[in-house]
């Protein structure tokens, strides 16, 4: 380190050593540097044009000993137009979005400020990822995805902005994990929700998994249209031995116009482990591969 300090001090030396190169320097000069546990090091500056460098010419000062070598270089300034615009890296943006939504219980406890922060983080990642085109790479959707966040859940309804079971004390429903299972070959699109329904004392709560089966199709480059088919409920926990049962579907004439059984959303970001979608009612959803 002592040798390095000595070299650095040369860069800050008085003009007589570095700047006043118009006068004829001696044929060579030697500066004695002390390096602990080794013999003195001599730094030699021979008569040459080395002290007469001009930008953008490279300059180099080196101190060499039997143990170490130090080199200091000044980079050549880049020519104008050679530097590309910096591209914001994807991974930090993904981590930022995850940190914003991770403590919001899928969005059920999100405040207005939380909603805005999630929206801002998602837009930054969408912009960095660029437009999504699934026409030649639909396999990106394949697999089971776990829902981390839905802006619609802040409405305190398990149906989001659509009709659904309310969360609260009147109907003690606790939402567990939520998944989307997508098969690009069969065009199956299943929304799977784990729920826990409270029961009167002394009975334990009822645990169940509800699967809302859909078919899907790709519209354009990134829009997905889903069509509802059926809902299947399978009890778990203490009642896991019961067979699954299917909830009858209401006739179309009796179904509310706000829930016609179809919907669509856009995939605005997708990679091997994260997906962002925007629903037809403005819902922002963030998924990670399960």
TrEMBL record:
Report the superkingdom from the record.
Eukaryota
The record's section on InterPro entries has: PAP (IPR039633), PAP/fibrillin_dom (IPR006843)
Pfam family name, one? PAP_fibrillin
Query: What family, per the record?
Result: Belongs to the PAP/fibrillin family.
Location of the Plastid lipid-associated protein/fibrillin conserved domain: 93-287
What is the designated name of this protein?
Plastid lipid-associated protein/fibrillin conserved domain-containing protein
Q: Which GO terms describe its cellular component?
A: chloroplast
Record's subcellular location: Plastid, Chloroplast
For the keyword Ubl conjugation, the answer is no
Report keywords, A-Z. Plastid, Transit peptide
State where it is primarily located: plastid
């Amino acid at each position: 380190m002592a040798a390095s300090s000595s070299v650095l001090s040369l860069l800050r030396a008085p003009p007589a050593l570095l700047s006043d190169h118009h006068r004829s320097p001696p044929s060579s000069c030697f500066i004695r540097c002390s390096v602990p546990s080794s013999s003195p090091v001599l730094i030699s500056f021979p008569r040459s044009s080395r002290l007469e460098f001009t930008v953008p010419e490279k300059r180099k000062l080196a101190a060499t000993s039997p143990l170490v070598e130090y080199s200091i270089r000044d980079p050549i300034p880049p020519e104008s137009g050679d530097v590309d615009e910096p591209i914001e890296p994807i991974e930090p943006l993904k981590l930022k979005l995850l940190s914003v939504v991770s403590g919001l219980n899928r969005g059920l406890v999100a405040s207005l400020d939380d909603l805005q922060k999630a929206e801002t983080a998602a837009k930054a990642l969408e912009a960095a990822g660029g437009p999504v085109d699934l026409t030649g790479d639909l396999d990106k959707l394949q697999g089971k995805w776990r829902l981390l966040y839905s802006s619609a859940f802040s409405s305190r309804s398990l149906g989001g902005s659509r009709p659904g079971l309310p969360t609260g004390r009147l109907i003690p429903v606790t939402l567990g994990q939520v998944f989307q299972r997508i098969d690009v070959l069969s065009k199956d699109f299943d929304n799977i929700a784990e729920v826990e329904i409270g029961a009167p004392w002394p009975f334990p709560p009822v645990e169940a998994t509800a699967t809302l089966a859909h078919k899907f199709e790709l519209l354009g480059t990134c829009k997905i249209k889903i069509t509802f088919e059926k809902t299947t409920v399978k009890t778990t926990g203490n009642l896991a031995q019961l067979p699954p049962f299917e909830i009858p579907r209401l006739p179309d004439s009796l179904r509310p116009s706000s829930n016609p059984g179809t919907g669509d959303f856009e995939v605005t970001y997708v990679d091997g482990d994260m997906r962002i979608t925007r629903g037809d009612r403005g819902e922002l959803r963030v998924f990670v591969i399960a």
